[in-house]
Design a protein that fits this description.
With about 575 residues, this protein is of the alpha/beta class. It has helices at about 20-30, 50-65, 85-95, 110-125, 135-140, 160-170, 225-230, 245-255, 280-290, 305-310, 315-325, 335-350, and strands spanning about 35-40, 70-75, 105, 125-130, 180, 195-200, 215, 235-240, 265-270, 350, 355, 360-365, 370-375, 385-395, 395-400, 405, 415, 420, 425-435, 440-450, 465, 470, 475-485, 510-515, 530, 535-540, 550-555. Strands 10-25-26-27-23-24-11 form a seven-stranded mixed β-sheet, covered by helices on one side. Helix 7 (about 225-230) packs across helix 8 and helix 11 crosses helix 12. The structure holds adenosine-5'-triphosphate (ATP) and magnesium ion.
């Protein structure tokens, strides 16, 4: 079975996951006629592969059940947010191939309504202004095993609270002088229910509301309310919000009006990936401290980094599908991500030949000024991609590591006196090795068998090895960036007393200059993807400029880490 992008759907995923089960029950029972989901990023960094999972889940459900999916920026924290991040998030969601319903929403659009609800809770005796400092509040909250202590301000009258809250809003107090808290239960076993803070004072400019507000609502008093305003039916979030759900429901109980859609929070396990870190704060550290070239460095697990590396939206969807929806935290092997891109590019990528570490080969019996064009298959997995012509001539390049002067019988590549096939071209035999004064091999003198054109044996004799090659006078120079994992530890942020940056792999980037590529690459544009025969999948980088193509290796052909 395949989906609309012709990607195979794994067997075990054809049954409904627990979120789909809930949605189908709600549709079948008539609780909802249509579902509305949302993706709610905080614009304080670039999105990463974990967000991609959440986007694919939320938008995927919207598509599957012919409902809607909103995009909403959770922009309640004025200090950390930036329009650069907003723009990158819009780009990433669209690149993944999704369309949000209607306009883009912002939690900050709801500041008036949130304020009114806060006033209502105050009037209903369900919220109070507290003068305690953040530190005092935190100490008085107790611990999971020890109940909290009520604030001396807890029993202020509604009038007094309202007056103070209005003055908070009017800017009569400094940052941290007062907060608004929900009046719930200081001895609740759930710490989130111990009179959580609803509003704090922050004299800071907001990227959308400017200086209109100096009080800002907390996440817990914003998120569910925004869902409610937008008519979200299923508010899907990650497991760390499970303990917030009673609070989500408590606020909903006190603002809900009969007849409206009441959102339901559902939690699933966040995606964790081996050999990387995923928190935006840590990714920001890598960028700010210049361990990488930016948020979209091809080694970053960000969507923009993966895109630049050569990942396709289809590969990320396949990956998300393979990972599935779990109720318990786990760590996914980054090998599965690499598998997913190989799967997609194997079927779609144009094949070309490129030599990374060139070794000159002269075909001594090939006429001096002759050249010919040999047909080559563009993608053996997809006939419709057709063929191209590859130029052949007297001087060629092969990969340095494909030649050994002396080698054992298991070395099927070229050796002195041995014969190999040049892909799509001829059998060649190495007769002589030329070295410089230091003993380095600089050139091979070979003869070709004119009867083996197309790489076919003329007389039934067999050659084991097939090499990729490039004609020297037709080759174009390209620079290639080879990437290795950014961290050399499986779980870089999983070590007590050790900073995750201690595990940065110092060899995560190798640049090879003046690699030799088949002339087909001449017109390659930023973002074009190829399979370089025998080497892996590659993608043209945006840093390329006229006369210099820079190419990122997306992944090697096989999982070379398995053998390390
Ligand atoms: P981080 O902890 O990486 O900084 P965040 O949770 O603070 O991420 P948000 O912008 O608040 O980032 O997240 C937007 C949405 O993406 C939320 O619904 C969140 O649950 C989801 N999300 C974030 N990280 C992951 C992840 N690793 N796997 C799945 N979903 C995720
Ligand atoms: Mg967050």
């Amino acid at each position: 079975m395949t989906d609309k992008n012709n990607i195979e759907i794994p067997e075990e995923k054809k049954s409904l996951n627990f979120i789909e089960q809930i949605i189908e029950e709600d549709l079948n029972s008539g609780k909802h006629k249509e579902i509305i989901t949302r993706f709610p990023p905080e614009p304080n960094g670039y999105l990463h592969i974990g967000h991609a999972k959440s986007i694919i889940l939320n938008f995927g459900l919207g598509e599957k059940y012919k409902g809607k999916t909103n995009l909403r920026f959770d922009d309640t924290n004025p200090a950390k947010e930036d329009t650069e991040y907003v723009d990158s998030i819009l780009e990433d969601v669209q690149w993944l191939g999704f369309k949000w319903h209607g306009k883009v929403h912002y939690a900050s659009d709801y500041f008036n309504q949130l304020y009114e609800w806060a006033v209502k809770l105050i009037k209903d005796g369900l919220a109070y202004v507290d003068d305690q400092s953040g530190e005092e509040i935190s100490v008085m909250r107790g611990t999971p095993t020890k109940p909290g202590t009520e604030s001396p301000n807890r029993n202020r009258t509604a009038e007094e609270n309202l007056d103070l809250f209005i003055r908070m809003k009017n800017g009569d107090f400094k940052d941290g002088e007062k907060v608004l808290r929900a009046k719930i239960d200081m001895s609740s076993p759930n710490m989130h229910m111990r009179d959580p803070v609803m509003y704090r004072i922050k004299h800071a400019e907001h990227h959308r509301t400017g200086n209109k507000w100096c009080i800002y609502p907390m996440y817990d008093f914003t998120h569910g309310q925004s869902d409610y305003i937008e008519g979200i039916t299923h508010s899907i979030c990650t497991l760390e919000f499970e303990n917030h759900r009673p609070l989500y429901d408590w606020f909903m109980d006190h603002i809900y009006e009969e007849g409206r859609t009441r959102p339901r929070q559902i939690e699933f396990a966040r995606l964790n990936l081996s050999y990387t870190v995923m928190s935006k704060r840590k990714l920001a550290e890598l960028v700010e401290e210049k361990y990488v070239s930016g948020w979209n460095d091809p080694r970053m697990p960000t969507i923009s980094g993966l895109r630049r590396r050569g990942y396709t939206p289809e590969s990320l969807k396949l990956f998300a599908d393979k990972v599935g929806i779990a109720k318990r935290e786990n760590i996914i092997d980054v090998g599965l991500l690499e598998y997913s891109i190989r799967e997609h590019l194997n079927r779609t990528a144009q094949r070309v030949m490129t030599v990374l570490n060139p070794l000159k080969v002269t075909i001594t019996n090939y006429p001096e000024n002759e050249e010919e064009l040999l047909p080559a298959i563009n993608n053996p997995e997809d006939e419709t991609m057709g063929e191209r012509e590859v130029p052949f001539s007297k001087i060629l390049y092969i990969e340095k590591e494909d030649f050994k002067e002396v080698a054992n019988r298991k070395f099927f590549r070229l050796k002195l006196g041995g014969e190999v096939r040049l892909r799509y071209a001829y059998f060649i035999k190495c007769n002589e090795v030329i070295k410089d004064e230091t003993g380095q091999i600089t050139e091979l003198l070979c003869t070709y068998d004119p009867l083996s054109k197309g790489g076919k044996s003329p007389d039934g004799r067999k050659v084991k090895g097939t090499l990729h090659w490039v004609s020297a006078k037709h080759a174009i120079d390209v620079d290639i960036r080879l990437y290795d994992r950014l961290f050399s530890d499986e779980s870089p942020d999983g070590h007590k007393n050790k900073d995750f940056k201690e595990f940065i792999n110092p060899n995560s980037l190798t640049v090879l200059e003046n690699c030799k590529a088949e002339p087909f690459l001449k017109n390659a544009k930023s973002g074009d993807r190829f399979q370089f025969e025998r080497l892996g999948y590659f993608c043209v980088d945006k840093d390329s400029f006229e006369n210099k193509i820079i190419i990122n290796r997306t992944v090697p052909l096989r999982d070379s880490w398995k053998n390390k």
